[in-house]
Amino acid sequence: MGKNPSNFKGDNLPVEQVSENDVQDFINKLNTQTGKSYRLPTEAEWEYAARAGTTTAFYTGDCINTQQANYDGSSQDYNNCGAKTGVYKQTTVAVGSYPANPWGLYDMAGNVYEWTCSAYFGNYDGSEKQCVSKNDVSTSRVLRGGSWYNFARHARSAYRNYYTPDNRSSIIGFRFALGQTAS
Fold first, then answer.
1. Domain limits of the chain?
2. Per-residue confidence (pLDDT) for residue 183, from 0 to 100
């Protein structure tokens, strides 16, 4: 689209340093150029894709390590799994550097948090199916997936974070979906 706002630049690195507003602008341009219907996933869609049919804390099982995802493995163990004995790369890594989940999706845990189109509410039950209005700039949006900067627990399939739609950070990127929002 003409510019790369990322802090970490390189071949196949995820784009980061993008606000949800930036991502919506990108998606609008992409849709215009391609004639397709790309969008951010809802929080429920994101979790469904991340879990890939699993019911454990991570799609890798009850534990995760730094050979399975990019997170800060230098401290804070999760579930007594030995997660704190791993590597802390202090940067993003090329997309696909780690094994895919059972559905073939890469980097659903770690590397960068991913924007969803869902408003953040404290009581999440996995059933929401609608995106917040793009015109609602005051409501925080949900981030999922954890990042290179965070501990293993942030990479859990169920872990939730949130920021305002204008927030940019080197730990935040995105993944988009194709088609209409689930209803």
1. 1-183
2. 46
Neighbouring residues of 131: CB distance < 8 A, sequence distance ≥ 6:
39, 40, 42, 117, 118, 181
pLDDT at 106 over 60: yes
The CA distances from residue 145 to 45, 81, 114, 133, 176, in Å, are 13, 19, 6, 23, 14
How many residues in the chain?
A: 183
Task: Give the residue carrying structure tokens 């196949």.
Answer: 12
Alpha-carbon distance of 94 to 100, in angstroms, equals 13
* Residue 126: CB atoms within 10 Å: 9
Superfamily of the domain at 1-183: paralog of FGE (formylglycine-generating enzyme) (3.90.1580.10)
Q: Is the pTM of this model over 0.90?
A: yes
Sequence-ordered strand ranges (E) for the chain = 38-39, 113-119, 141-144, 160-163, 172-173, 177-178
26-66 confidence digits (pLDDT tens): 999 999 999 999 999 999 999 999 999 999 999 999 999 99
